Amino acid sequence: MKDSLETIITSLVNDPSKVSINQVDGEREITFEVSVAEGDMGKVIGKEGRIAKAIRTIMKAQAAKEGKRVSVEFVD
Fold this sequence. Notes:
alpha+beta, GMP Synthetase, Chain A, domain 3, three-stranded mixed beta sheet, 42% helix
């Protein structure tokens, strides 16, 4: 799951080397903390958060197949 999230994020940003994804595993929930370069944060979030919402939707669909819950947080 982390690999697919990383693929999506790195394709959106100008500086893929600054992409950092921290995975926090819970009993039934996985939290991904995504950090990108300061100038790329707007590209990842998108207008009115549309891209961020789409990323979360994709990840939730993938997690549902595995019977888990997932959340994606964008941190500075």
